[in-house]
Amino acid sequence: MSSRSDSAIKIQRRYYTETAERYDHMHAHEGAGDPSNLKYVAALFQSAGVQSVLEVGCATGRGLRALQDALPNSLICGLEPVGALLREANKANDHGRISWIQGVGESLPFADRSFDAACEFQYLTSCA
Predict the structure, then answer these.
(1) What 8-state DSSP symbol labels residue 50?
(2) DSSP assignment letter at 31
(3) Which domain holds residue 75?
(4) Which of 4, 19, 27, 34 is the most exposed place for a label (fewest CB within 10 A)?
(5) Residue 127 within a domain
(6) Is 47 among the domain residues?
(7) pLDDT at site 89
(8) Distances in Å between the alpha carbon of 62 and those of 47, 51, 93, 102, 104?
(9) DSSP result, 56-110
(10) Within a domain: residue 83?
């Protein structure tokens, strides 16, 4: 990765660290907050027999909390590089059934085929 990309990633992660406590409010209008999207994804996962889900770039886990409600017997895991966002996810995780892991999508800390499905409810950006 170039130093330019490293710099952009640091800027992005600093932004999310500084805004983590306000993240859900700031991003409420985006994809993860749309109940119809989540119902569609949950129905798709139910029909496919999905029993384990990984969200890459889960932020505060809004989408995963709704997915856990729809798939209560499934293993649900969120992966996020920004520790401050994961702390907010843990605060809001009233179910206590979602696993939160700090890491990046470019280097998943899981063996191949650890999950039936992987998803991303917001959008991923490239800093290259």
Answers:
(1) -
(2) G
(3) 3-119
(4) 4
(5) no
(6) yes
(7) 92
(8) 22, 19, 9, 16, 18
(9) ES-TT-HHHHHHHHHSTTSEEEEEES-HHHHHHHHHH-TT--EEEEE-BTTB-SS
(10) yes
In a domain, 73, yes or no: yes
Six-digit token pair at 38?
């989540």
Query: How high is the mean pLDDT of the chain?
Result: 86
pLDDT (tens digit per residue) in 21-76: 999 888 776 655 567 788 888 999 999 999 999 999 999 988 888 889 889 999 99
Residue in the block written with tokens 């886990």 = 61
Whole-angstrom distance, CA of residue 104 vs CA of residue 15 = 17
- Full-model pTM: 0.85
Which CATH number is 27's domain given? 3.40.50.150
Q: Quick one: which H or E segment has residue 13?
A: helix 3-19
Number of domains in the chain: 1
